[in-house]
Design brief:
- This protein has one domain.
- The protein is mostly helical.
Length: about 300
C-alpha cells in the first residue's frame, strides 16, 4: 500500500514538473505549487485577512461618506440614480440593505460640513486600513525584505488617493456606460439583441481591466523587493477572476441559501457586510502569494545557476 502511494506521488510529481501554465513565467506547476502551499500554510492567511477586514471596516465608513458627499454636487441629470443602481448591483442585496437608507440620504442632499470634517478623519482611518493590507502582504513567508515604517505610511497615502480616483472612474464608467446603453436603446440604435450584447460586454470588459489594474498596482506596491512584477501576472489574473466570481456567488448565497436576514434579523446585513470584505481580502492575499511563489522559484533557480 505504501509503495503504491509512493508510485502515485512520484507520478504526480513527474507530471506536474512538466506542466507550465500561462503566467507562470516558465516555471513548472510542481515547483510553484510547492512554494504556494508552503506560503499559505506557514503564514496564516485567515488571520491576516481578518486583521485587514477589521481595520478596513474602521476606515470604510468615513471613506464612503467623504466620497459620496461629492456626488450631490455633480450637475448631471439622473446621475445620482444611476450611481445608486450601480452600487445596488455591486453588493449582495442583504449587504446593500445594511446601508441603503444612509447612502440614499448621503447621495441626495448636499452637505459641505461632511466634506470638511469627514476628509480629515477619512485620510487617517483609510490610510490605516490600506496600511493593514500592505502589512498582510509583507507578512508572507516568502518575503524577506520589510519596508520601513515611514515609507509604508507614504505608500498607504498614495494608494488611498489612487483608490479614490479608481473608485470615481469605476462609478463613472459603470454609470455612464449604462446611461449610454439606455440612450442608444431609446434612439433605436440598439434594437437588435446583438448590439445590446456587444455594448454590455464592452462595458464589462472595461470594468474588468479597471479591477485588474487596481489589483496589479496593489500587488506591485505590496511587493517590497526591488524587482517588480509585470502588469499581467498569474496571481493578479486569478485574484481578479475569483473576486468577480465570488461577488456573484456570494450574492446568490446570501439571497437564496443563507437567509441571513431571517436568521439574524437586522444584524444579518452587517454580518454579510463583514463576510464580504473578509473573503475579498482573503482572495487578494491568495493571489499575492501565488505571485510571490512564482517569483521565489525564479529567484531560487537564478541563484542556483550562479553557483
Amino acid at each position: 500500500m505504501l509503495k503504491k502511494f509512493q508510485h502515485i506521488k512520484a507520478y504526480i510529481k513527474d507530471l506536474t514538473s512538466r506542466i507550465v501554465l500561462p503566467g507562470f513565467e516558465g516555471q513548472n506547476l510542481f515547483d510553484v505549487g510547492k512554494f504556494f502551499v508552503q506560503g499559505l500554510s506557514s503564514a496564516n492567511v485567515a488571520t491576516r485577512a481578518a486583521s485587514v477586514t477589521y481595520r478596513f471596516l474602521m476606515a470604510a465608513f468615513p471613506l464612503i461618506i467623504c466620497i459620496f458627499s461629492l456626488i450631490p454636487f455633480v450637475p448631471i441629470d439622473h446621475f445620482q440614480e444611476d450611481i445608486l443602481t450601480y452600487i445596488r448591483s455591486f453588493f449582495p442585496s442583504e449587504v446593500y440593505a445594511f446601508f441603503d437608507d444612509a447612502l440614499v440620504d448621503l447621495i441626495t442632499y448636499k452637505r459641505t460640513f461632511l466634506l470638511s470634517i469627514g476628509f480629515a478623519v477619512t485620510i487617517y482611518l483609510a490610510s490605516s486600513g490600506i496600511n493593514a493590507l500592505l502589512e498582510a502582504f509583507s507578512s508572507s513567508y516568502h518575503l524577506d525584505v520589510k519596508r520601513k515604517f515611514h515609507k509604508q505610511i507614504l505608500w498607504s497615502l498614495l494608494l488611498l488617493f489612487a483608490f479614490m480616483v479608481f473608485a470615481i472612474l469605476l462609478t463613472l464608467i459603470s454609470g455612464f456606460g449604462q446611461m449610454l446603453i439606455d440612450y442608444l436603446s431609446r434612439k433605436h440604435f440598439m434594437d437588435s439583441t446583438f448590439s445590446w450584447t456587444v455594448m454590455t460586454i464592452l462595458k464589462n470588459v472595461i470594468l474588468f481591466f479597471l479591477y485588474y489594474s487596481v489589483i496589479s498596482m496593489l500587488y506591485n506596491i505590496g511587493h517590497t523587493e526591488r524587482e517588480k512584477w509585470k502588469y499581467f501576472t498569474a496571481g493578479t489574473t486569478m485574484a481578479t477572476l475569483l473576486i468577480i466570481l465570488f461577488q456573484k456567488g456570494f450574492s446568490m448565497y446570501l439571497t437564496d441559501i443563507a437567509k441571513f436576514d431571517k436568521l439574524y434579523g437586522p444584524l444579518g446585513a452587517f454580518l454579510g457586510f463583514m463576510l464580504f470584505f473578509y473573503y475579498l481580502f482573503y482572495l487578494l492575499i491568495i493571489g499575492f502569494e501565488l505571485n510571490l511563489s512564482i517569483h521565489h522559484v525564479k529567484k531560487m533557480k537564478r541563484n542556483t545557476e550562479k553557483l
